[in-house]
Amino acid sequence: MVKAKEVNKEENLDSVDSKVSIYEVGYIMVPGIAEENLGSEVTKFKDSLIELGATFISDEYPKMLELAYEMSRSINNKKQKFSYGYFGWVKFECATNSAKVIKDYLDKNETLVRYLMIKTVRENTMSTKRAYGKQEGPRRRTTVKAEDQVPINEEVIDKEIDALVV
Questions:
Q1: Predicted local confidence at residue 126, as pLDDT
Q2: Is residue 33 part of a domain?
Q3: What span, in angstroms and rounded, lies between the C-alpha atoms of 103 and 126?
Q4: Nearest Cα to 100, choosing from 16, 1, 17, 7?
Q5: Residue 14 pLDDT exceeds 60
Q6: From CA 18, how far away is CA 115, in angstroms rounded?
Q7: Which one-letter DSSP state was computed for residue 111?
Q8: Disulfide-capable partner of 57 in 2, 81, 91, 118 (CB 3.0 to 4.6 Å)?
Q9: What is the pTM assigned to this prediction?
Q10: What residues form DSSP beta bridges with 65?
Q11: CA angle (75, 80, 86) in 5-degree steps
Q12: pLDDT, tens digit (0-9, with 9 covering 90-100), for 59-110
């Protein structure tokens, strides 16, 4: 009787591990990769994910960006610091047990400065960019200069207040 319960628990664990989920990986590749070699590095990266069980949904080719802060990574047992990097992302589906293997691969991949792997949804959830500081229309605040102000007539204001109150 006990053995039957143990077998059922193992089957349930296997079914949980084989459940297919959607994941997204945002990554920053080292800036030392030459522009002409970037395509082959990205292809090698994606091929490795496919070999580990990923089925791609969408992706964005990496672009060179200045990082918000300096990041460090140990590569070949040497600590290196980075202020720039190629940022890209991939969205894929895979089994839960494959996701664990993919995470281990990402941890050991020395072409990545940093990555973030999240569980997500299949739908495209990208938001539009806002232009901060350059709003037009009624939301934009305007300041009135002292010389452009109209003098205040207290009698007119009092009459308008009385008319509103009545």
A1: 60
A2: yes
A3: 23
A4: 17
A5: no
A6: 24
A7: T
A8: 91
A9: 0.63
A10: 85
A11: 85
A12: 899 999 999 999 988 888 888 899 999 999 999 999 989 999 999 999 998 8
Please name which of 130, 107, 110, 129 lies closest in space to residue 25, comparing C-alpha atoms.
107
Residue 85: other Cβ atoms inside 10 A:
24
The answer to whether residues 22 and 98 touch, using CB atoms and an 8 Å cutoff, is no
Closest of 9, 13, 54, 40 to residue 111, by C-alpha? 40
Q: Identify the DSSP state of 147.
A: G
Residue the block writes with tokens 């945002």: 26
Domain assignment of residue 114, given as a range: 12-120
CA dist 33 and 27 (Å) reads 14
Domain membership of residue 138 (yes or no) is no
Alpha-carbon distance of 135 to 62, in angstroms, equals: 30
Residue 156 domain-assigned (yes or no): no
- Per the structure, the count of domains in the chain is 1
Report helix, strand or coil for 94: strand
pLDDT of residue 11: 45
The stretches of 27-76 forming alpha helices (DSSP H) are: 35-51
Residue labelled with tokens 């890209």? 88
pLDDT at 77: 83
CATH number at residue 93: 3.30.70.60
